[in-house]
Amino acid sequence: MISKNMQAALNEQVNKEFFSAYMYLAMSAYCNTLGLPGFAHWMRMQYEEEIMHVTKMYDYILSQGGEVELKAIEKPEKEYGRPLAIFQKTLEHEQYVTGLIHKLMDLAIEERDYATQAFLQWYVTEQVEEESNVNDIVAPLRMVGEDKGGLMMIDQQLAARLAPTPLPVK
Ligand code: OFO
Q1: I need a surface site. Which of 6, 45, 62, 108 has the fewest CB within 10 A?
Q2: How far apart are CA 138 and CA 83, in angstroms?
């Protein structure tokens, strides 16, 4: 069982995760317009990953006898600048989401809600991975700058990103 307060906070996070998915889908479309199919693919995989984050939280709310309330999703931007700027924006966004997850954890600790603390631990670990993955892309992008050959090489590497493992259907 979760408190009404925790239920509201988790529903808010579901909405934020949906926004993340929406933003990465917009970034994917934008990368296509830049002629960078590997970047577009990476963003498309990130979109899938965010949908998985949404679904996992949605399932948890229901498993705790809570009510899911889906809210309107904010419109993402359409353009994100050059490749380095796209991934800098991605890093900033993931750092923001990490902060949100930590706030949720603070609430779970304050409420002595042990089940939600255990549940959120998965997201805490996931955010470490999310930030590290993006940092690993920002670094070479800084190095190559606008060099076409360098960007093409990174594009090929990003094209190799695998799809996230699907969650079991409830
Ligand atoms: Fe759901 O981690 Fe990214 O935003």
Answers
A1: 62
A2: 9
Measured CA to CA, the distance from residue 106 to residue 111 in angstroms comes to 9
pTM: 0.96
Task: State how far the Cα of 170 lies from the Cα of 162, in Å rounded to an integer.
Answer: 23
- In one-letter notation, the amino acid at residue 102 is H
Q: Mind listing the domains of the chain with CATH numbers?
A: 4-159 (1.20.1260.10)
Ligand 1 centre to CA of 33 (Å) is 24
Of 77, 64, 86, residue with least CA distance to 138: 86
* Nearest CA-CA partner of 11 in 72, 52, 102: 72
What is the chain's length?
170
Q: What is the pLDDT of residues 41-56, one digit of tens each?
A: 999 999 999 999 999 9
Find all residues with CB under 8 Å of 102, minimum gap 6, and list them: 124
14 touches ligand 1 (CB under 6 Å): no
